[in-house]
Every structure is written in C-alpha cells, then in structure tokens.
Write a structure and sequence with these properties.
Length: 184
C-alpha cells in the first residue's frame, strides 16, 4: 500500500512527530468529538470509491500491568456511554467495533483521562488498553465506508503514572513512526 492510500490520524502533533512526511496527516485534537469531526471532515474530501485506509496512531494507557509496547487492537469499545440504559429504551447504540487486521487486544475509548487505579481496574474487566480517540476515529471511518486500523503505544499504566504522560510521548511517537515505516 502506498502512502497516498493512507490517512494517518493522531490526536496531537507530539504523538505524530515521527510520521514520515509522505503520509497525509490529520491532527484531531483530544477527545471523541474532536476526533470524529476531524476524521469525517478529512474523509469527505475523498471520493467514496477512493477512500484511504485510516490509521489512528497514538498513546494508550495499559489496563493490565503485563501490557507494554505497541498494539493494533482488533476490537474497540466506547466505554463511557450508557449503552444498556439507552438500549432499554429501544434505541440501538454502537459501542463496540471489530477491526480487521488487528491483534487480540481490546481498546476502550472515552473522554475521561484515566489516572485512577480503581477506574483502571474496572475498565480492565472489559479491555486491555484505554485512550480518548480510537473508537471515534474507527466509527467515523466505518460510517464513511473506509477501512481503519488503530495503532497504540503504551505510555503509562492508567494510574497516577498517567500524569507523566507528556514526558512519555516522544518515545511513544518514535515507536509509532517506526511502525508506519515497517507496516504501511
């Protein structure tokens, strides 16, 4: 696949610091609304038959202490929506997406920055990693008809170590850039 057929999406410029220049890059801003809006806007510029592969790169918190390194989640969930309550009213809610080509990890996405061990442990019952944009990127790509891959580098343990996230971004960004070079 050539770089022209790939749209790289990152929440922050710092996480995308090592994206090779030949890739089209969209910086979305942090959070689900910003991510979904930016991806939808970017994909609207393509004709429907020529949609690129959307590759969302970024950092993630590990929900289990044995997780570290780089993951390409095969499942992403929207962890902070009241799906059961909404379904009980008779409305369908998209809160889980399966992604082709992913590994067996599950990414939980929500607008809350997870830095509390108790919250982390509750999320760990449903997922392996946590971020703030992955589900929104995957959902926007899916609705547009584009393929999507999420690539997440563990930056912290989703506990008080998460408060050191800014100091971990550069090392994660290097690994994410290397993944793009080696895999796209």
């Amino acid at each position: 696949m050539s770089a022209q057929q790939v749209l790289v999406v990152s929440a922050t410029a710092a996480e995308a610091a090592y994206v090779p220049q030949e890739f089209e890059l969209v910086i979305t801003g942090i959070g689900k609304v910003s991510a979904a809006t930016a991806v939808a806007s970017a994909l609207a510029k393509f004709s429907s038959g020529a949609l690129p592969l959307v590759v969302n790169i970024g950092t993630a918190g590990a929900l289990h202490t044995h997780h570290g390194g780089l993951f390409v989640p095969g499942v992403v969930i929207n962890h902070d929506i009241s799906s059961a309550a909404i379904r009980s009213f008779g409305h369908e809610v998209a809160d889980r997406l399966e992604l082709l080509g992913g590994d067996d990890s599950v990414l939980a996405t929500g607008d809350a920055f997870i830095s509390d061990a108790a919250v982390r442990d509750a999320l760990a019952e449903r997922a392996d990693l946590v971020d703030m944009e992955g589900f929104a990127v995957a959902y926007a790509a899916t609705v547009a008809g584009a393929r999507c891959r999420l690539v997440k580098q563990v930056s912290d343990q989703a506990d008080d170590s998460a408060m050191d996230w800014p100091a971990q971004i550069d090392a994660s960004a290097r690994e994410l850039g290397r993944w793009l070079i080696d895999n796209v």
